[in-house]
Specification:
Renalase isoform X1; binds flavin-adenine dinucleotide; six-stranded mixed beta sheet; about 350 residues; about 30% helix; Amino_oxidase; flavoprotein; RNLS; FAD; alpha/beta
């Protein structure tokens, strides 16, 4: 039995783990490590400190399936729709450009429910707060080092974090990359954004009717959503939560600043947009240093094999594009490489 480590419990890691299990069944032991305290990655759903309001999706908001992807990934879409984890987006979104031949879906239980579904299907041994710092080749295995605790040995490793974070790893990865591979990885560029979640008490009613709105006349704020309305879910008396995403330009300008210093600037701009907004019970701020990929790895099949034996494969949206289908494409591509090597 091969022992495979997937680094990252985001969408790419979870789909990769799930498909690996379905393909190889009991021939693999799948282990997933993530440095965060929970799963989701950039599809994370944040719980409020006070449980009387709804959770908030701080990263990805909804899933847009083009006709081509709806067809090529139809089994995964059917699985999510039939289990009630995906539903068509029906709520009004101001400024959302309707794309011909594509459909939008929301997640009634939050975006992380999709990631959690694939992780649970994978039967993987899941560990949080395991921050990988280095990979060392030891004969036919990989020794994987982390910030706290003993390093462990694996027969194969899949890295699914954004490429700039892969390039920060210590050990043998850097030396094993060819000059061309290194150049391709170094060319990857991500946008940065800040996200705010504002949690309100159950008696709060907003004075506007939209579920989400793209903002075009503010330098700081690009998008605002009322989670309760966007998800079209029965929220069982929970208070609404509001999500705010900043613009790429604002993110680039402030990325090196502490999120606690940036939060008041975003709130000030939000009050200009929504002067009647009631006082929230609590606020969470998230800095996405690596938000969405602007320049992906050129001419990539969806993954990069750093070494065939013992297998070391890089995957994630850096190798495709930043959305649900980009992650699925990358996971499928990494799976093909792994199956050939294992
Ligand atoms: C603000 C925002 C809005 C977005 N909107 C949408 C949208 O509406 N629709 C859509 O489809 N997509 C959207 N996206 C893009 C989408 O969220 C991403 O493409 C997708 O979540 C990427 O998944 P991933 O698994 O490849 O990477 P990630 O989700 O980043 O997962 C990588 C995981 O690796 C972990 N990790 C990193 N380094 C280490 C380490 N050294 N050791 C251990 N673990 C590590 C991280 O904690 C993370 O959980 C949005 C993204 C953002 C940030």
């Amino acid at each position: 039995m091969s022992r495979v480590l997937i680094v990252g419990a985001g969408l790419t890691g979870s789909v990769c783990a799930c498909l690996l299990r379905r393909e190889l069944q009991s021939k693999v032991q799948i282990v997933v490590w993530d440095k965060a305290r929970g799963s989701g990655g950039r599809m994370s759903t944040s719980r409020p400190p006070d449980p009387s309001s709804l959770s908030a999706d701080l990263g990805a908001q909804y899933i847009t399936a083009t006709a081509a992807y709806a067809k090529s990934h139809s089994s995964l879409y059917s699985e999510l729709l039939s289990s009630g984890l995906l539903q068509p987006l029906v709520a009004p979104v101001e400024g959302l450009k309707d794309k011909v031949d594509s459909e939008n879906f929301v997640t009634p239980h939050g975006m992380s429910s999709v990631v959690k579904h694939f992780l649970s299907q994978s039967g993987a041994d899941l560990f949080f707060e395991r921050h990988v710092t280095g990979l060392y080749r030891r004969g036919a295995s990989w020794e994987v080092e982390r910030t706290a605790g003993a390093s462990e040995m694996f027969d194969a490793v899949v890295l699914t974090m954004p490429v700039p974070q892969i390039l920060q790893l210590q050990g043998d990865v850097g030396q094993l990359l060819s000059v061309q591979q290194r150049e391709l990885l170094q060319d990857v560029v991500y946008s940065s954004r800040f996200a705010l979640a504002l949690f309100f008490s159950p008696d709060v009613v907003f004075s506007f009717s939209w579920a989400a709105r793209y903002v075009s006349d503010n330098d700081c704020i690009r998008y605002v959503a009322v989670e309760t309305r966007k998800r079209n879910a029965d929220c069982l008396g929970l208070g609404p939560s509001l999500v705010v995403h900043t613009s790429v330009q604002f993110g680039a300008q402030h990325v090196e600043r502490d999120k606690d210093d940036v939060q008041p600037i975003i709130l000030q701009e939000l009050h200009k947009l929504l002067p009647d907004l009631p006082q929230p019970m609590s606020i969470k701020c998230q800095k996405w240093r690596y938000s969405q990929v602007l320049t992906a790895v050129r001419d990539s099949p969806g993954h990069m094999t750093v070494l065939e034996q013992p297998p070391l494969v890089c995957a994630g949206d850096s190798f495709t594009h930043s959305n649900f289908d980009g992650c699925v494409e990358s996971a499928l591509s990494a799976l093909r490489a792994l199956k050939a090597s294992l």
